[in-house]
Each structure stands twice: as C-alpha cells, then as structure tokens.
Amino acid sequence: MTSAGLRFDLIVRGGTLVTPGGRIRADVGARAGRIAVIGDLGGATAAHTFDATGLHVLPGVIDAQVHFREPGATHKEDLATGTAGAVLGGVTAVLEMPNTDPPTTTAAALADKVARLKGRARCDVGFFVGATADNVAELAELETLPGCAGIKVFMGSSTGSLLIADDETLADVFASGHRRVALHAEDEDRLRERRPIAEAAGHPRAHPEWRDAETAQRATWRALALARRFGRRVHILHVTSAEELDVLDECKDVATFEILPQHLTLVAPECYERLGTRAQMNPPIRDRRHHDALWDAVGSGLCDMLATDHAPHTLEEKARPYPHSPSGMPGVQTMVPVMLDHVAAGRLTLERLVDLVCAGPARVWGLAGKGRLAVGFDCDLTLVDLSARRTIRSADMATRSGWTPFDGMEVTGWPVATVVHGHVVMRDGQLVGDPHGRPLSFIETMAPTSPA
Fold it and tell me: Which residues are annotated as catalytic?
C-alpha cells in the first residue's frame, strides 16, 4: 500500500518504535487523536510533522500513582502544574489519589475533580475514589462513574475518614463492587506502637525502623487474605520489602503490585544522611537487602508496573523536625530520566521499562486505548534520546514544591518530546500549545457495544 495522497493530523517520522512485536524503524500517522497508520509514510502529508530520527518512540508513559493536591493544598501542587510536570517528564497519563481536601469520597467530589481538568490538564487524568467507613454502601456505584480509576484504601499512614485500619471495614469494602482495589499496605496498629522509636531518634534515619518491613508485611498479608476470601482483585502500592515479594509471588491470581523508582534508586541509610527529611516517604526507603530484592522482582518479571507516588510538599514543610515532617517527595517529572539511566546502566532493558510504565499500568487498571503503539490506540507518545546526557535539577521542576530528591543526578537518557492525543505538548524541555488532557476512560466502566 502506497502512502502517497494520505493526509494526517500528525506524522512522527523516522523514529525507532518500541512495539509489542519489537523495535522497528517506522513512521506513525495520527488522525483524530489516534494512531491511524504505522509504517512508511514517506509520501503522506500532515498538518504537523515531527522528525524523530535518532530517537526511540515509546507508548505514552503512565504514572498510576500521583498526588496533585487539588483541591485543598494547591500551595504544593495543582492539576495544572502537576500535569505540566508530567508531560515535561514524558508522562502522558496519570492516576490521581483521593487524599485531597475535601477527599474524593463522593460522586460530587469526583465530578468536581473531573471538571477541573478542562482547559488545564496537559495529560490525561483518572481519579481514585477513597474508601471510608461511611461510603462503603456507595462504592459499587462510585467505581462506575466517569473518570474513576478504582477504589483506594489507606490501611495506614493517613488521617481522618480515609484511614481504614480494621479488617471488618476492609471486608465491607472488598464486598462492595468488583474493580481492582489499590492498597496502601502499612499496619496502623504497629505504626502507632512503634512511633516512639521515631520520636526518640529525632532523625529520618529512624524512618525505616519505625515503619519497618513487618509493618508493611502484616498489612499486605491481611489484605491478601481478604482478597482471596472475597475474590476481589487488589493492587499493592509501593512495595518495599523482600518478604512482601515472597508472598506476592504466590498470589498473582488476586494481586498485582508496583515498585517506585525512588526505592530502586535510593538506599538507606545513605539517603537519609545526605537528603534528610527529603528522603522521607511512606513506606520508607530501605536498606540494600530490600533494594536488591526489588531489582530482582523487576528483572524476573514478578513486578507488574512502576509508579512514582508523586507527593510534593514544600521545602518549608519538609524542614519541620522529624517525625513531624511530612512524608512524600515529587517524582512524576523524573521517572522517565531516572529509569532510562538504569536502562543505560544495564539494570533492565528498554522493552522491560516499556512493560513497566506503559503496558503494565494500562493492563492493571484497564485504561482504554493506552499502553501500546498499535493502530486504533490513542496517539500518546514518549520520545526519548537514549544517549543524551543531562543533569536533573530542582530548578527545572514544574511542581510548585520546587525540588526533587534527584537534584544534581547525572543521567543517560532523556525524554525530548511528549505527544498527547496526537498533539506535541512538550518539545526539548518546553511546553507546547494548549492543554489537551482529558478524563481517562476505563475498560471495565465502558458500556458494551450494541450488536449490529
């Protein structure tokens, strides 16, 4: 078939595409926001053309765990700045968490967040609904609403109504609805028992001792037992311990899980001595034994996906005396360069990275039209230069918090362009054009196709 006479909205020419069938040198033609053709489009024309010679073209990267703080804490982040950071980092879709103020626990709160995207979001966004003791009866309905990514449960490390620490209420959550439940798995009782360790230490080096591996293991074991009891699929967020991995290896029928780039890159105790409370997050950065076990899970294929848990706080907030300093760090803008540097160092292949940050999140959360370079899928692309050498700098971060734990880190591999729905939205580190982000659609909530 000749491409002469074909017309597209966008043609990305000459890149090396990382497709389900392997790496191929080909052009991508987009119409109406979707991939229309993959092949030789030398004779075709387009309203816009991007020369990708020398670049690798990935499916749009997905960060399935971010906290963009809107509404309620927009001095740290909002949907506009958060999605700007996303596309500057090569990320084309994110899933946002419910612990805002007010929390996303009702249909009205979800609809409010969805409405805030229009004309402001530079990438696509889905929103988790938070489970509480008060909204259990509505969860099955809430998970079907437009823009809903699924149900999120905080088993520990939360405040107010979003904390579900007891198995009875958690069982009620699992019995309501059918979509996969995202779990922050830390045992609240053990956290309370061990807090004096952190108080006495007064330094974040005690963070992984206070929130020790057993704190995570207990919650994970409890959640997996209930998942089997109710036949409910679960996703364990930000897994950090070797022992959790041993259990999850036996539970792939009901559980998926993710690992964060921070836990693959930073190691205790060095990170706490160097970064102080900037290295403080929940669950914590752990020692080399756990770090190596996480990399084994990445290499073996056991890990389903990566996400960042982008959770910005201002430097003034992070400077509070430990343990009164807030946990969390930015990450959405740095995931791609940090992980490309690991690719350059030989710790994983580019194909495995694509599985972890594109296909994996789309598969786990049922994102419609995302995660693959294939005809009919959304034309969301992350274009990277695998040989580019750059330095990550806090000064370049779009987040309102204005910092990154990776400040000064030299990396090999860099996102040089981002395409969302066939629009180039970032090029050479600069935002391009108007925001084109939309609420994400999810396969499990889509109406069935009517018979012809």
Answer: 309
